[in-house]
Amino acid sequence: MLRDPEVAYRRRWLTLTVLCVSLLVIVLDNTILNVAIPTLARPKNVGGIAASASQLQWIVDSYTVVFAGLLLTAGSLGDRFGRYRALVIGLSIFGFGSLLSALSNSPTSLIVTRSLMGIGGAFIMPSTLSILTNVFHDPHERRKAIGIWAGVAGLGALGPITGGFLLSHFWWGSVFLVNVPIVIAGLVAGYFLIPDSRDPSTPKLDPVGALLSIAGLSVVLWGVIEAPSAGWTAPQTLLAFGVGAAVLALFIRWELTYASPMLNMRFFQNPRFSAASGAITLTFFTLFGTLFIMTQYLQVVRGFSALKAGLVLGPQALMMLTFAPTSSIWVGKFGNKRVVATGLGIVAISLLLVSRLTPDTPTILIIGTTMMMGVGMANIMAPATDSIMGSLPRAKAGVGSAVNDTTRQTGGAFGVAVLGSLLASRYSSEVTHILGTHIAGEVKDNVGAAHAYALTALRDQPELQRRIVDAANTAFVSGFHLAAIVGACVIALTAIAVLKFLPARGDEMGSGTPDDAHVAADVGG
Length: 525
Hints:
Blueprint: H1 5-10, H2 12-40, H3 53-81, H4 83-102, H5 107-135, H6 139-153, H7 159-169, H8 174-177, H9 179-193, H10 207-230, H11 235-257, H12 271-301, H13 306-334, H14 336-354, H15 363-390, H16 397-435, H17 437-440, H18 447-456, H19 462-501, H20 516-522
């Protein structure tokens, strides 16, 4: 492990490479898994683990709930005990959880091991960004480095390509096993290239705040995940939101009064911090929700394989990887406010174009629209992340990074739930209107069920089969249009808020600048 601050600084770009590799294993994980969901549902004698619909949901969501619920606590512990140590712990747990997931032979064991991976992920993601912030002292270099980090964070769309390749050559466990060599490479390279850093003030631990944040975020996310199936006004949904909100309110009250809070709530008084956090939350609300629907559109309505759907979405990820690092150039010329607002404007326009997609839209137009969205996202994520990290002292980089990551995960979870619910509601009403209640009863749940019903139960009735498939596709696209328009409105309102509240420029390290000399001295561990 690097201990000489001068050597650590000279090798900062190599350090960034290791951090990006560590981050990549996180962002690819969920999208790779989505490709394997149909395989996991198969009986064991044909290569699956016979997972039910609810078990499949929690194989995905157990990771999300644990990951998002632990982020603030993990970031705070990294600040207190060392960010490199937090990264090592995270990579080790994530790699071990991946190995156990690959070897699982039942849905229950896979849900448990996925939760273990969520614990590891919660330590990895904030550690990568907080280490980056402490290694890159120069504000201009830091913007560029954060741009690269943000570009890598947007590569999740490459997951279906990777997953499709693995599933076509190996068994379903390969989508987890592929993480293990990456984790090992990150651990070995990190030992030589990543310096340690921590908050030099060695604040007291905040176990009450940690427990309240974990409980509050986890319960709210559970409610968000369950709401589309249970109903937004169902008793258990309302109870989850009520309990979660009450616990988070207690968390805020505790953090405002505790002498050494895990998260200093007064950070949110800084408009650079709060406006950028809001922009990321609502951007990921739209991004995750739209991608969730887009994958169904491509695979069910268009009939693309998982691999082909991944190839269609791949250019969007490449646009994010390409344009996020260059966003620092525009920030230097025009400031964060204009760049983020412009990125939001581009995303809003691309969503309006998405609302014009049909079951027969040429593939090249879909690719062009999603590429446009990727360019816009790149010019939101990197400058907004830099605003969050640049408004805090480097001593608080871990918790600042955790706030950035928590807003992403929470916004994304709400986006999938809300936009998915809008789609489902419109789909059900439209397919009933087109087919009539006497036929729609078999196909009104979702477009995938409609296609499955038509291809199996109606295989001897080609005309009725074609009629139901066409009706289901039309109804789905109608719901997709509604979700895209709502997303565009959310993004447009976010752009207005950014123009009003996000400062064009700010103090590069915020009010914490006096801490920096101490932090720099501590970089060597």
